[in-house]
Amino acid sequence: MDIRSLIQHRPTVWRQYVLLGVLLLALIIDGLDLQLLSLVSPLLLSEWGISKAALGPAMSAAVFGMSVGAFFGGWLGDRVGRRRVLIAAMVLFGVATAAASRLPDLTTLTFLRVIGGLGFGAAAPNAVTLVSEWLGGALRLRAIGWMSVGTPLGGLIGAIILIGYLSQLGWRGSFVLCGVLTLCVVVLVLVAVPESPGTLLRQGRT
User: CA-CA distances (angstroms) from residue 60 to 64, 120, 163, 182, 183?
Assistant: First the structure.
């Protein structure tokens, strides 16, 4: 019996639910960081005295980086391990988000959003694949559906939360907060999420 069949036919245990919860949280944070610039843009525009049109490249930079990151992130996950790439991606966009709080100009912001976008894109396919490989039965199908809404849910939750605290945090404080939250979730991934079964088997960990 191969590993997929073994997981498929075994009863679900508590650690699989924890894994699902942590990986879903990772995608929620991914979505929050992705949408953060649009959420704080009114304050940034006011402070820097620029127009919405001038902010356009920075707004689209993360989407560009995300498309590149999604392509190479899945490819890299196949080769070095899903968990490793997920952690690296989250550290990348967490640090890029926090660093954006100290930016002096629009050019640097655009560059950092591209860098963060690489992490946004690489995180999602590896998180979904980890859920797919470690969960079995009907829970696996439901979990993949839940994961598909994790990123947009993060943007929605961010909008709801920040609308009440944005004036106190400011746009710089918002970037710091989201960057720190991302790195906290990285710790949860390190503790609660094992490497994918396929990678472990290739390493001889039967």
Answer: 6, 13, 22, 21, 24
